[in-house]
Amino acid sequence: MSLTIGSTTTLNNGVHMPWLGLGVWKVTAEGDAQRAIHAALEAGYRSIDTARIYNNEAQVGEAIRSSGVSRDEIFVTTKIWNEDQGYERALAAFEESRKRLNVGVIDLLLIHWPGTDKFQETWRAFEKLYKEGYVRAIGVSNFKVHHLKKLAEGSDIVPAVNQVECHPLLTQKELLAYAKEHGIQLEAWSPLMQGHLDQPVLQELAAKYGKSAAQIVLRWDVQSGIVTIPKSITPSRIAENGAIFDFSLSDEDMAKIDGLNRDHRFGSDPDKFLF
C-alpha cells in the first residue's frame, strides 16, 4: 500500500477520509488543543477527532479557523455522548456541537457508544442530519458486531465508520472482517495502547526498521486497512507519529503483530458501558 500522510480512504458514500488523524481526548488545558492541532496540520495531518464529552470542541474549532489551512482540506469528526442519545436529544446535541465547533459542515458524526437502548433512535436523527446536508458522513463508535446488526434493522444508511479501541493487544479481527464485508471503515482509538508499547515484538521490529514502536503500530494500522488517530499534544511526537509513510512492514512482520492479540482492553467494554 503506497501512501503518504495526505492519503485518504474512500468511505461507503464516496467521502474521502484521511488514514491518519489527530485525537484530542483529554486535551482541555487552555491553548493545548490549538498548539497540538497547529503542529499536526504543519506536519501534514488533515484530520482532527473530537467529541462533545472531550469539552474542547470550541478550542478545536478555533484552532482550525486560525491554522491558515483551508477548512475544505480538514476532516473534522465529533461524537454524540450517551446522555444525548434519542431522536430529539441527539438533534439538539448536534446543534450545540455544531455551534461550538463553528467550522461549517461536520465531516463525520459518530454515536460515541451504543449505550442501552436508544442508538436506533439516535441513528434516525443522524440519517436526518445527513440527508439535510449538515454532516458529510455518519457513523458509530465502540459498536460490536451485534450492535451493528441491530442498527441495520430498519435503517436506511450503513454507517460509514466504526471507531473502536484497536491495537496489537486487541486486534478486532472479527469486527474488521464484518466491517469490510459491509463497507464500514474501521478506525482505531487508543492505537498506542495508552503508552504500553513495551512488547518485545514491537521493540524488535522498531530496531529492524529504524522506527519507534509507536510508528510500527501506526503503520500496522494503516496496512491493516484501519484509520488511526493517535493522541498527543507534543509537537515532536505528533510529527513522529505522522512519519509512517516512508516504510512498509513485511507480511511476516504484520503477522507477528497480529499474534500479539490478547483481546485486552485498556478502555471500557461496550457491553458494560451502559448508561
Features:
eight-stranded parallel β-sheet, TIM Barrel, 10 strands, 10 helices
Describe this structure in words.
The active site is at residue 54. One of its GO terms (molecular function) is oxidoreductase activity, acting on the CH-OH group of donors, NAD or NADP as acceptor. The longest helix has 15 residues, at 87-101. Strand 4, helix 2 (57-65) and strand 5 form a beta-alpha-beta unit. With 275 residues, the protein is an alpha/beta fold. The protein has helices spanning 32-43, 57-65, 87-101, 119-131, 145-152, 173-181, 200-209, 213-223, 235-242, 251-258, and strands spanning 8-10, 16-18, 22-23, 47-49, 75-80, 106-111, 135-141, 161-165, 185-189, 227-228. It has one domain (16-258): TIM Barrel (Alpha-Beta Barrel).
Question: How would you concisely characterize the structure shown here?
Answer:
The record marks 79 as: Lowers pKa of active site Tyr. The chain contains ten helices and ten strands.
SSE topology:
Layout: E1 8-10, E2 16-18, E3 22-23, H1 32-43, E4 47-49, H2 57-65, E5 75-80, H3 87-101, E6 106-111, H4 119-131, E7 135-141, H5 145-152, E8 161-165, H6 173-181, E9 185-189, H7 200-209, H8 213-223, E10 227-228, H9 235-242, H10 251-258
Parallel strand pairs: 3-4, 4-5, 5-6, 6-7, 7-8, 8-9, 9-10
Antiparallel strand pairs: 1-2
Helix pairs in contact: 1-2, 1-9, 2-3, 3-4, 7-8
What spatial form do the alpha-carbon principal axes imply? globular
Largest sheet data: 8 strands, parallel
Structural class: alpha/beta
The overall pLDDT, averaged over residues, is 96
Number of strands: 10
Kindly provide the name of the CATH class: Alpha Beta
Q: Which radius of gyration do the C-alpha atoms yield?
A: 18 Å
Strand content: 15-25%
Poorly predicted ranges: none
Q: Helicity, in percent?
A: 25-40%
| Number of H- or I-type helical stretches | 10
Name given to the CATH architecture: Alpha-Beta Barrel
CATH topology descriptor: TIM Barrel
**N- to C-terminal distance:** 41 Å
Q: Walk across the major sheet and give the strand order.
A: 3-4-5-6-7-8-9-10
The secondary-structure element order is EEEHEHEHEHEHEHEHHEHH
Name the CATH superfamily classification. Answer: NADP-dependent oxidoreductase domain
Number of separate structural domains:
1
